[in-house]
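[09:14] KT: can someone run the structure on this one? pasting the chain below
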Amino acid sequence: MTHLLPAENWPRADGPKQIAYICGVMKDADLIPDSSVIGFPKEQNDRVYASMKDYLTNNSLYLWPSLASAGDPAAFDWANLHAPEGTADTDRLPWQYWRANIDPSERYLLAVAGSTRHRLRADESGIANLVLTGDWIRNGFNTPGCIESAVLSGRQAARCVLATEPEFIGETDFPKN
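[09:31] RB: done, structure tokens below
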């Protein structure tokens, strides 16, 4: 994601030289409390922080071998992380950005076995003049989180609005019922 550096407000001389987004699945907490439990977000962010530290310590060199410490080629060199001058070793880690996506609006739709039949098609909102679109609808591709599914559902929504009948490649890969 280094191409985004010019869009960020860093001084050119001492700013970061690269941006990397490291994302992954986080196992849900054993109990997800209601929003009145104010300590839960911090607990979950602490889990992500510990996971990030573990990843950088134990796995990152498989992806970035050049980030190894000069003194120990099997150890991650924490000086590679951008932080204020004079910040030592793992103290640089808190200067990075991390987060736990625990709010309902941040959680994502899954495509688990047997769930496709519960999805609505673009023309099945049940409300007059309301057409559905998004990678989450039943569009034939049925793969949330990918551009192809989003584009296909957009085309299907346009077909509904324009009252046309074209078929699109990919939308008949699954039975209509």
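[09:33] KT: thanks! The chain has two domains: 2-105, 108-162.
[09:34] RB: yep, looked fine to me
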